[in-house]
Amino acid sequence: MTLPSDAGRRDGLTWIGHSTVTLDLGGTRLITDPVLRPWLLHLRRHGPLPAPAAIRGVDGVLVSHLHLDHLDVPSLRMLGAQTPIVAPRGAGAFLRRRGFRAVLEVAAGDALRVGGAEVTAVPAVHDGHRRPGGPVAAPLGYVVRAGGLAVYFAGDTALFPEMAGIGAPGLDVALLPVWGWGTKLGPGHLDPPQAARAAALLHPAVAVPIHWGTFFPRGLAGRRGALLVVPPRRFAAEVARVAPDVAVRVLAPGGHLALAPLAAAGRLR
Question: What is the value of pTM for the model shown?
Answer without folding.
Answer: 0.94
